[in-house]
Structures
1.
Amino acid sequence: MAIEYLGLSSINGPLVVLEGLQDASYDEIVEMTVNGSQKKMGRIIEINKDKAIIQVFEGTEGMALRNTHTRLTGHPMEIPVSVDMLGRTFNGIGQPIDGLGEISSDIRLDVNGKPLNPITREYPRNYICTGISSIDGLTTLIRGQKLPIFSGNGLPHDQLAAQIVQQASLGEDSHEEFGIIFAAMGVKYDVADFFRRTFEESGVSDHVAMFINLANDPVVERLITPKVALTAAEYLAFEKGMHILVILTDMTSFAEAMREVSSSKGEIPSRKGFPGYLYSELAALYERAGIVAGRPGSVTQIPILTMPNDDITHPIPDLTGYITEGQIVLDRELHSQSIYPPVSVLPSLSRLMKDGIGKGYTREDHQDVANQLFSCYAKVGDAKALASVIGEDELSPIDKMYLNFGKEFERHFVGQDPHDNRTIIKTLDIGWKLLGMLPREELDRIDTKLLDQYYKPSPVTEEGLLKEE
């Protein structure tokens, strides 16, 4: 028989304290009735003897110490899961908000997930094509990888996320099932509407499940949103054999919500006011990506976070970098030059890229072309630094070639139209065309056989720029 507790001991922001509890457990869901009619849901986040601290998802507005009845449910937060979730839109705690009714399913899963046995993990192989050259060519996304995007306020990470959702695929030759889970935390209404409208107009919404937590939604809901999204992803991947790409934006909102709740609990803050368990909370989310032995699907993550003041040493990007396998960094200077997407090539990397590209995956020249483009673009930086000291006119002919290469590289390879969905073959061909601006002897990172097969000098103008076709 369920026991109902009358009244509360205290209320502090999104948290309430209830005393006299029996047989309560950590992470247990409670149902709260306010004034005999209003229903709210909460989660036990701390227990001390018979006292419990409860997070209230819908916020504590209207709640008082004497007008609230609380009932323990005896289980953690669970959501119904089904393949029918694709094509649907949910709020931050997994409730449908698209007017199409509830998800009908007998299967309910704990949103906290189950830890994966490291021994059962398989090494990520094969790639996911995003249609974006700077990602596919130089920081390739591998199935089962977690590859974050480090952005900043005002940079077009929302547009980039929408483009990835529209264009992502398993490649032209794959017949495997593919789906996308898109979770937005703390976004404004117009941003949420932009995502929803973009997916519908592009015709991809039928294989996308959206979880939207708006900026005016309760802050506690923000902590649950990524867990709900990843629970749906794990079911579709490991039970239904699909390859699932999960996009989480913005992890900074998630971390700031955690800081706010931690402050309400009176916990001692760590760096920048964030709780000391920020690392373990982020790891608990990011480590839910991967491939499990004996299961046909995979979960791949692209967390997006905005770096406060563009500071890559801030705790959120800093800790994210420790946990994930690389990063894609957006650059404000490139954005100011109207280059989209403004991916900063040199600090970006994908640590698993080498094992999911090349012959049998993309093309045999992929790794060499990527290495050579990185090397040449690094020399562009050296030429720019020298030009700032002695002037561009005093540079040697080869340094001037590198400067021109850098301009064309940013314009044609990094930069592309938001609706330009490039195949990996087209991306590599653009790379060879750019390398053709330089003398063959400068290309020291490419195998001679590949040079014989693919290299040919590119026609350039008198200014040293590529001639328009």
Note: Residues 366-390 form the longest helix (25 residues).
2.
Amino acid sequence: MTVDALTDVAGVLVGHATRDGDGWLTGTTVVLAPEGGAVAGVDVRGGGPGTKETDALDPRNLVQRVQAVVLTGGSAYGLDAASGVMAWLEERGRGVRVGPDPAHVVPVVPAACVFDLGRGGDFRARPDAATGRAAAEAAHASATTPGAGVTEGCVGAGTGAVVGTLKGGVGSASTVLDSGITVAALVVANAAGSVTDPETGVLYGELFRGGRVEYPAPDVHEAASRRLAEVAARNAPPPLNTTLAVVATDADLSKAQAQKLAGTAHDGIARAVRPVHLLSDGDTVFALATGERPLDAGQPLALNEVLAAGADVVTRAIVRAVRAAEPVEGPGGAWPSYGELYGGPHGEQRGEVYGGPSRAG
């Protein structure tokens, strides 16, 4: 049974640690690889990234597998969360063996951060090693409830996320290809750009899903635009924002192929957020491959369907992140949710219906 989430890739676990209230609005999300690790790649396209251990994923370098990926709030300060995940993994002997004792390991834990400093009101309220450990423990504990999926919205690294003037968050999606290979994504939508078409209010990402597209009624969009203009005037400008993603598959990929998957998955961000990859963004995509299903050795282009699916699930995950987000208003600012302004995920308050994605432009 699939749940349309990153955890549909067998062995991949997700856990969140969320801090909100009393000046806090931030958190950390941990993606745990299966025992033995996963082949990984990364592609960084934002001009202001905050990352850790991404050089280890270069196909020219030694490390072949990673034990976890950390996505965190707190800007560069929040990267300290990865230390807590490393300690948790070390205690379980999971990592690259570097000595004669099986306990002599160095866990490989790439990480990336989003900017959410001060959004809860306290600039110094940000994730630390304890937050990372808590998220790792939550991911590990989730293995006891298979089929539970991934909690979406204002949780973990998406707690303080903002997309333009809207509240952002965490979203996830998956697909199973005709070959039986699973491709899935988890995103933290925290973009400087917008996820909505300014003329209609429709989510850009929904224009690429195929089938019918439901557009907000004109009066709903007009009211939403007024509300967003009001909060934009009250809030500080949204600096150094970032969309992060982890794309996972059970396909047997090399490090170079994983890196290619991470790169093409950025297309999924570009479909759902405009503009992207600016100097004020830190857009970063990680790719994980568990290697359970071989690609068709007789088809040199077999990777293409995995690449295309990676972009598609990233787009859908961004849409789900925005739709799952809840509004926030506090000392750090006010961010309405898309659902608050335009209605729920099933189209309430919506108006015109068009037959396909031809209005994507």
Note: The chain has six helices and 19 strands.
3.
Amino acid sequence: MQVAIVTGASSGIGFGTAVKLAGAGMAIVATGRDANKLAGLEKAIGDPQRIATLAVDLTADAAPQQIVDFALSRYGRIDFLINNAGVGSPKPLHETDDEMLDYFLNLMLRAPFRLARDVIRHMNPGSAIINVTSTFAVIGGRRGGAYSAAKGGLQALTLHMACQYGAQGIRCNAVAPGVTVTPMTEGRLDDPLFKRINVEMTPNTRLGTVEDIASTIAFLCSPGGSFINGQTIVVDGGWSSTKYLSDFALTSTWTPR
């Protein structure tokens, strides 16, 4: 039975990915900060043999070794690492203080770097690492700030690992979601400006879902993705790659700011 570590698995994309991979027959080592939410994941998967959860602060110095030891003691192997844990609501450069900068970089660049470094020593040919980045890693975005810096660094790290370890049969790819309906974004879905920037500029005329992202990650972990290495798959309905504007956006009166 293949084993996948999923970080940030207590909600949103991480939760959905853990459920999707378990449904594909894998055993899941799920990490997050909230033990109660992780208990909800255990219930959702419904098979104690396929899910092991660990409440841990991913930014703690001891966290990577703790996670690896936990996975090996429970299942004896690690086949996939899904570096998903993240945080939103960034501020632009000029509004970002050092505390926010350090937090974003620690959680979304330093932590996945350190965890991948410890995990990769235990991976065999056929294994893979998937880093969850963002459309803000591939284009410039307003208010990106430290978030863009962290996700852009994670994309560059993906390319390095794909090159360095590909010959060992260990692949590394990134999945870059657009705006996805999760607890991290739902508070902004009623903001008219947010909807104009995202919904009205997406050719698919909807926002992404957790299922969209989880399915892409699952594909990269499947035999069908076995020759994909060093790629960033953007899952955003065409938002970042087109100049689309909806009929509403084209015919509405936009108030200058």
Note: The beta strands are 3-6, 27-32, 51-55, 80-83, 128-132, 171-177, 232-235.
